[in-house]
Design goal:
heterodimer; A: alpha/beta; Rossmann fold; six-stranded mixed beta sheet; four-stranded antiparallel beta sheet; 10 strands; B: alpha+beta; 3 domains; seven-stranded mixed beta sheet; 50% helix
């Protein structure tokens, strides 16, 4: 589904240039669940942002199925993103002024889904996320785990082909972290491709494949045997 | 999507109630001021504008070497009408200088402003009496009184038929016919409370009687410059033809000019444009205040931007386009501005009576043909863009990658902008405070300075009789002086209340000079308590005083360069005057004009009629004197009748300060408003800044900082900003106030004090505001602040 070749990203500040991505090559197949790991500052978030079209690399190629994405203009990128991708962040990033229901509804609105259908889709996913009795609450009234479930629900409600998650369990304790991981796995089982950045090998063990980055390079890849066997 | 955006907007506004209130409140106050100024501007610039001939009506005036006048001789009008096809109508008017009493059995009224007007002028100015404008036959005169007068004179009148009314005093009444009533348009240059409409006025008068206003109406599209020069050529030819210019005399001593109707109210060529300048200054003030409030709005919106950053980031991740977000924020700000506009109308309505009193107008907001109906939406859009464009661009421009990392701070990006906006606000406030202080000191100076004469306890009695000959005034004087408590009385051609007298050429000591002439009676100087410098004052004991004695003021003596003036001769108006005395200069014209070189004489063949009766009264007997005069007036001054009407000279003189007092009120309001708005803005801004530094404060406190150090820390940057504002605006304030002071001949010096005071005021207010805001943060337990992070 995704083919990335020779991706380079350089941050220029007044004093120094940081090469955050230094010739990344990567392939992600449809329906795969890939984890990206590596030491802090190695470029994981940068890679994810580039994949999510939130950031532009200096050079390289990024093909999604057969479309080259790096040549798109801002408007096309926005359109592509809202039709195909969902995001989950470490710090949830829910809008404080909107209720749980409204937060989840937001991407549907940007995708111009009619109101009646929106209601159906949101309620459906709220049911799946086990937060039914919270739908009228504001984010501040929820626990961290609940907030992250809402964030996942928001990422999924448009049924994206690709979900990008940056340390989704980073701010959660292990119980809540596991809940979120299970959600992602369920989602993956229904066919959604997932790319997740994590520091936790426990979380990584939920995925099919683990990619290790260092200094903007891919240094190793590992097929998660356990997970694959489990699947069989 | 709109619904959801609206929800976000409303919940945000509600969450930040305080700041929203300050934002909207500050804006609405400023907007109210602006609306008032705009209404005033519209009103002042649209006199006669409803007249369909507005753009085609011109006044014919004349230019003399040192002044311009709209008074023209009647034959000129006729000559213009006959000579130029592009002039479609010519009409003359003549004001009457007197207050006339008109009475019936039911009541008495005093016409203060009578106009004699030609039918053609009435038509030109759309002057329509009740029942329609009728053309008089031949030499017929149609006399109309203003509606309220008619109602006083004929309370039971229901028809529109003419009535007979008496004029003058009951002892010697004249009677005449009133054709009907008229409702004068208060919004016209032609104002009157009684009007006589005839076919022609000044019919027999020659070029030597320049007592008429001439209005012409031209064909649309006429080239006015050409017409003006043609009229001037005609005027010169006419003067020559009628023997008004002698052989060898410079023909172009007086020239004719045209002045458009639209300039008559604010900046007539013959007159001054002080009102126009005041209007422009006022408009600039109103505009400045509005801009300041918008700046406030911008500043607070940007300050709060961090709170909205996450929303922007998330929405962008979900595929929102930038323009959608820009529009969203602009609409949010539009809604706030809209609320502010509604509020401002309420505020304006509350201030309006005060405003009307100050500017002597009668403006109303709620009226159908109010220009506000189209002006307000434009203003709304305008302030939305001024206040909202930048914040909307900043907010919608956030990069999601940066924002969503979690510890995003906008303050660095907009640091300079926010601070310079704050500095701008305070600079304007400093200018207004300094200006106000300097205006105050000049006004105080004007009120306390010795003006060289004493207008207190001097009555000016209204009178329609000429008392040019002292013998004619003598019996009246005798009767007035008999009233116990009257100290002195006199009559003169003008009052020392800033009124313009005439001037003429006089020669003395081989020097020719133009002097203002004041035609007086005995006891003029005594009544007004004017100080003698040398020689003596006029006295009935000297027979010659009523013929050819003159008293000069110091300025006149200086003008002629006279060493030993007493006994010298001044020649003017075909008369040789002997100088019998010199008086000290006194400020009859207030503080703006220098004392003119003047000559005082009892006899002046070139002078004007003496009608201004002045009576100096003993302070403690004022009430009794007034009562006695009122009771006896019909015996004292028969022609003027049963109606003893008076004014206090000190009040009339005080009117010279009216303009400055207006200015003072305006500056007071402006200074208060800008300070209020700046402080409101600072209050909210300081709160925001402090909140942003809560973690820093907590860390510092844990490391051992005490409260005072923290207060200092928070105040420092604001202190510097206010100091910078002061330093920027001091020179500006200095230049502006100096310019203003230069309009006075007699003025105070600018001292450093007003600048220091405004510096102190702004610094103090800033420290108090910031400290109040910082208190909560400083007093809070640092542990909570850190846990919260
Ligand atoms: N906006 C930026 N400007 C300059 N340098 C940046 C910027 N964002 C990231 N970097 C640098 O790019 C490199 C990669 O950053 P990135 O955020 O991708 O790391 P990461 O692998 O996600 O780290 P972590 O695990 O700590 O989140 C780092 O060295 C970082 O300092
Ligand atoms: Mg990261």
């Amino acid at each position: 589904m995704i083919t990335i070749e020779n991706l380079e990203k350089v941050y220029k500040t007044e004093e120094i240039e940081t090469t955050a991505l230094n010739g990344i090559n990567l392939h992600v197949a449809t329906g795969e669940f890939v984890s990206i790991m590596g030491p802090s500052g190695c470029g994981k978030s940068t890679l994810l942002n580039v994949m999510g079209l939130l950031d532009k690399p200096e050079s390289g190629s990024y093909k999604f199925i057969d479309t080259e994405l790096l040549t798109l203009n801002d408007r096309e990128r926005s359109n592509f993103r809202k039709r195909n991708m969902g995001f989950v962040f470490q710090n949830f990033n829910l809008i404080d002024e909107l209720t749980v229901f409204e937060n989840i509804e937001l991407p549907l609105i940007y995708n111009k889904v009619p109101a009646g259908e929106r209601k159906k889709l949101v309620n459906e996913i709220i049911g799946r996320m086990n937060i039914v009795n919270r739908s009228g609450h504001f984010p501040q009234q929820l626990s961290g785990g609940q907030q992250q479930r809402v964030a996942v629900a928001r990422a999924l409600v448009t049924k994206p082909k690709l979900v990008l998650a940056d340390e989704p369990t980073g701010n959660l304790d292990s119980t809540h972290g596991n809940e979120v991981m299970e959600l992602l796995c369920e989602l993956n089982e229904t066919g959604t491709t997932i790319v997740m950045v994590t520091h936790s090998s426990h979380d990584a063990s939920f995925s099919n494949r683990i990619i290790n980055l260092k200094d903007g390079h891919v240094i190793s890849e590992k097929i998660n045997k356990g997970k694959t066997e489990e699947l069989i | 999507m709109f619904k959801l955006n609206l929800k976000i907007a409303l919940r945000n506004l509600w969450k930040n109630k305080g700041i929203t209130a300050i934002n909207v409140g500050g804006l609405s106050i400023a907007l109210a001021a602006f609306i008032l100024v705009m209404m005033y501007f519209t009103y002042e610039t649209s006199f006669d504008k409803k007249n369909p001939n507005y753009d085609n009506i011109y006044v014919v005036g004349r230019t003399f070497p040192d002044f311009k006048t709209n008074f023209t001789p009647p034959p000129l009008a006729k000559a213009i009408k006959e000579a130029f096809a592009e002039v479609v109508a010519v009409g003359k008017m003549k004001p009457s200088g007197f207050e006339f009493a008109a009475f019936t059995d039911q009541g008495t009224v005093f016409t203060k402003k009578q106009l004699f007007m030609e039918y053609e002028a009435a038509k030109m100015f759309n002057i329509i009496p009740e029942g329609g404008l009728e053309k008089p036959n031949g030499t017929e005169t149609f006399y109309y009184l203003s509606k309220p007068y008619m109602q006083t004179l004929y309370p039971n009148k229901t028809d529109n038929k003419p009535e007979i009314v008496s004029f003058g005093s009951k002892a010697e009444p004249m009677s005449g016919q009133v054709k009907g009533s008229i409702v004068p348009n208060p919004h016209s240059n032609i104002s009157f409370d009684a009007v006589s409409i005839v076919n022609e006025i000044g019919a027999g008068e020659s070029y030597g009687y320049p007592n008429y206003y001439t209005y012409i109406q031209v064909k649309p599209g006429t080239d006015i410059a050409t017409l003006e020069s043609k009229i001037n050529t005609l005027y010169q030819a006419e003067l020559k033809k009628n023997g008004m210019i002698e052989e060898g005399e410079n023909a172009t001593v007086t020239t004719a000019f045209l002045d458009p109707l639209k300039n008559q109210h604010l900046r007539p060529k013959a007159g001054n444009d002080a009102n126009y300048k005041v209007l422009i200054a006022l408009s600039l003030l109103g505009f400045a205040i509005l801009i300041i409030a918008c700046i406030n709005f911008t500043n607070l919106s940007i300050a709060q931007a961090t709170k909205r950053a996450k929303e922007v980031g998330v929405k962008k991740v979900m595929g929102a386009f930038r323009y959608q977000l820009t529009a969203q924020f602009l609409i949010e700000i539009l809604v706030q501005c809209f609320i502010a506009t509604l509020l401002s109308l309420v505020i304006a309505e509350i201030i309006l009576p005060q405003f009307n009193r100050l500017f002597l107008v009668d403006l109303t907001i709620w009226q159908i043909d109010n220009d506000l109906i189209w002006q307000l939406p434009i203003i709304l859009v305008f302030i939305t863009l001024i206040a909202g464009y930048y914040p909307a661009m900043v907010l919608s421009g956030f990069k999601p990658v940066a924002v969503l990392k979690g510890n995003f701070q906008t303050s660095r990006q907009t640091y300079w902008l926010r601070n310079s906006l704050l500095v701008t606000q305070f600079s304007v406030a400093v200018i207004f405070i300094t200006g106000l202080l300097i205006i105050n000191s000049q006004l105080k100076y004007m009120r306390t300075q010795d003006v060289g004469f004493n207008p207190n306890q001097v009555l000016r009695v209204k009178n329609i009789v000429y008392f040019n000959d002292p013998e004619k005034f003598a019996p009246i004087k005798e009767k007035i002086l008999k009233v116990p408590g009257v100290k002195a009385t006199t009559v003169a051609n003008i009052l020392p209340d800033g009124s313009e007298t005439g001037s003429n050429g006089y020669t003395a000591n081989g020097t020719q000079a133009s002097l203002d002439f004041i035609d007086v009676d005995y006891d003029y100087f005594e009544t007004l308590d004017i100080k003698l410098k040398e020689g003596r004052l006029f006295s009935a004991e000297f027979k010659g005083d009523a013929q050819n004695a003159a008293i000069l003021n110091e300025a006149a003596v200086a003008r002629f360069g006279l060493k030993d003036p007493i006994g010298k001769v001044v020649r003017g108006c075909n008369t040789d005057y002997t100088i019998v005395g010199v008086i000290k200069d006194f400020k009859a014209n207030g503080f703006e004009k220098a004392v003119e070189p003047s000559i005082y004489s009892i006899n002046n063949p070139c002078g004007n009629g003496k009608t201004e009766i002045m009576i100096k009264v003993d302070e403690n007997q004022m009430a009794a004197v007034l009562a006695t005069l009122k009771a006896n007036w019909k015996d004292i001054n028969k022609r003027d009748g049963d109606n003893f009407r008076y004014e206090f000279l000190d009040e009339m003189y005080g009117k010279l300060f009216k303009k400055q007092e207006q200015l003072q009120s305006v500056f007071f309001a402006a200074a208060m408003l800008t300070i209020l708005i700046a402080i409101l803005g600072l209050f909210a801004f300081a709160k925001y800044i402090t909140n942003g530094r809560i973690k820093e404060i907590a860390v510092r406190k844990i490391l051992g900082a005490n409260d005072l150090q923290i207060f200092k820390l928070l105040n420092t940057s604001f202190f510097y900003m206010v100091m910078i504002a002061n330093i920027i605006s001091w020179p500006l304030a200095y230049i502006l106030t100096k310019k203003w002071l230069e309009t006075f001949v007699y003025r105070v010096d600018i001292s450093a004090l007003p600048f220091i005071i405004s510096g102190l005021i702004t610094v103090l207010l800033t420290i108090v505001t910031v400290t109040l805001q910082a208190r909560a943060a400083v007093k809070a337990n640092p542990v909570n602040a850190l846990k919260y992070e």
